[in-house]
Amino acid sequence: MICPRLLLFFVFCRVIFLSHAADSNWAAYLGDPSASHYSTLRQITAKNVAQLKVAWIYRTGGADPSQRSQIQCNPLIIDGVLFGTTPDLKAFAINARTGQELWRFDPAAVKGLARSGVNRGLVYWNQGSESRVLYANDHFLHALDPKSGKRIDSFGSQGSIDLKEDLGRDVSMLSLQCTTPGVLMGHLLIIGMRLGEGPAPAAPGHIRAYDVRTGKIVWRFNTIPLPGEEGYETWPPDAYLHVGGANVWAGFALDERRGIVFCPTGSAAFDFWGGDRIGKNLFANCLIALDAHTGRRLWHQQLVRHDLWDRDLPAPPNLITVRHRGRKMDAVAQVTKSGHVFLFNRETGEPLFPLSDIAVPPSDLAGESAWPSQPLPEKPAPFARQVFGYGEITDLSPEAHRAVLDRFVRIGPHVPFQPPSREGTVVFPGFDGGAEWGGAAADPEGILYVNANEMPWILTMVPTPSRSQSGTSDGAALFTRICAACHGPEGKGNAAQNVPALAGLNHRLKRAELLALLKLGKGVMPSFDFLSESQRNAVVDYLLGFDSPSLNKKASTRGTDMLGLIPYSHTGYNRWLDPQGYPAVKPP
Questions:
Q1: Which of 60-74, 210-224, 363-377, 401-415 has the lowest mean pLDDT?
Q2: Average pLDDT over residues 94-121
Q3: If I label 417, which of 97, 233, 370, 386 is the partner at 20 to 30 A Cα–Cα?
């Protein structure tokens, strides 16, 4: 396995180098529709890479250290022009040979539009004399003229469409962002989205295709099936009305010749308690093969049943050709957060290697019913360690070993797929993998390169106040339900997850700014617009240390009734570290 840092370095160098190659394009997210990360360019080699020198620097601006801003964009290069996005989510085009800016588009400068979330790339479409750059931000999709950066009026409403529409139910008050670019099949743009994952209400993660010329929806595949659709019986009868998630947030892979789009879905919401979604939960945590022209399901494989561990499929699959049982076969390879590679026949969905059903422990949380078994491939071997046992405890120093061992004894042995608990459950590999959202790289020689994590995390569930105790309008109860999972029960934040501490908010933000932040969201923080005005005021009162006023419980409307039905939250996404801040596990 290549060193993860080297893999990322070479991918980055290829992008830089493409800017100097007039006859070569990086025309799609991750290189091509198959998400290969592969370039045919051969001028950069292991022998000369150390001799590379900076040709130019383009400063995007837009960095905000207080918000730990970042660029996640995998830029496109089309005929010598580089298209990308800034840390504050403006789209831009530059001359890839000189670094000179050609144009910049700021959606926040347009009335009714906004900038929020992250952006991981763009889509370029060309047919005859027509071309456009498709750029998603917040819950809007924009069509831009590649030459000027101006919106194309014939697309949607004055160049933009609202992705909160066309989902089959009202999600206007719920969080929805489009962070990863979709994939093109002819004139169709197939897209997914990022949704809420906590105990708050979430939108459904249906997969949609839009006409890139008009912005009109062409088809929709319901990942949470409606009555009469296949998979409906794997949920409670009314789940389609309120359960969210099962979304493609990591991107797609496309077999252009066969017209098949491969869709890796995430878990259903809430990530860590599924008492309101008892069942296998198709089509969450599935690799789904759809007819790219119509959205018709061709086959699917569910890789996690009734997910309780946030085991989203974290990256686009890779389309590869392998020699299997003596003959060449077109396959699709899906990497997972658990550190496995699942290989399937691209046309039929048949596993290339047997899948074993392993028994997993039951849940002891009230109302929960964990699925009794989970599928794992017998080959290839996992690319990350699977069990955090005594032999894996750090030996960086005697003090570090003792501190980790003390907690290890208290928390109990690690078992893969151990359900979440109030005592604390070890998740290993952690919530960010195993495999990450950057995905694997595949070369024509049949080698798959994976950038992998091996870090134990600890998930601790906490009960939330019932309606009889506080209703859903008490500021402290609302904080526990919707904020503590990221910011922690004491509001200490999580720098590793880009989540700031909440101490001293009254010195950093005015009350009106806090209320607007809850309503609109910012960065990785979703919108909580589904809360009533009185509920948002209660949360702000709690954050500022004021006594919450007596609130009218009848104001708790617009979908917030579901808040009172989720009996658990959690204490945040916590890496298991030693007292010096190093991983609790030995190095790989």
A1: 60-74
A2: 94
A3: 233
Tell me the per-residue pLDDT of 135-159, one tens digit each, with 9 for 90 and over.
Answer: 999 999 999 999 999 999 999 999 9
State which residues form the domain around 497: 465-565
Using the structure block, give the residue that is written with the tokens 């040709």. Answer: 55
Q: Above 60 in pLDDT, residue 547?
A: no
Q: Residue 402 — φ and ψ, nearest 5°?
A: -65, -40
Q: Give domain status of residue 249, yes or no.
A: no
Evaluate whether residue 35 is within a structural domain. Answer: no
Name the residue type at position 571.
Answer: T
Do residues 195 and 247 lie in contact, with contact meaning Cβ atoms separated by under 8 Å?
yes
* Domains of the chain: total: 1
Is 561 among the domain residues?
yes
Distance (Å, rounded) from C-alpha 284 to C-alpha 533? 32
Q: For residue 299, which of 285, 288, 314 has the smallest C-alpha distance?
A: 288
Q: What is the pTM of this model?
A: 0.86
Q: Please give the structure tokens belonging to residue 40.
A: 């045919």
Length of the chain: 588
583, 576 Cβ separation under 8 angstroms: yes
Beta-bridge partner residues of 320: 331
Q: What is the CATH number of the domain that holds 519?
A: 1.10.760.10
509 part of a folded domain:
yes
Share of the chain above pLDDT 90, in %: 73
List C-alpha distances in Å: 284 to 199, 236, 301: 17, 14, 10
Sheet holding 123-127, edge to edge: 123-127, 130-137, 140-144, 160-162
* Predicted confidence (pLDDT) per residue in 399-451, tens digit: 999 999 999 999 988 999 999 999 999 999 999 999 999 999 999 888 999 99
With a CB cutoff of 8 Å and minimum separation 6, the contacts of 305 are: 280, 281, 285, 371, 373, 374, 375
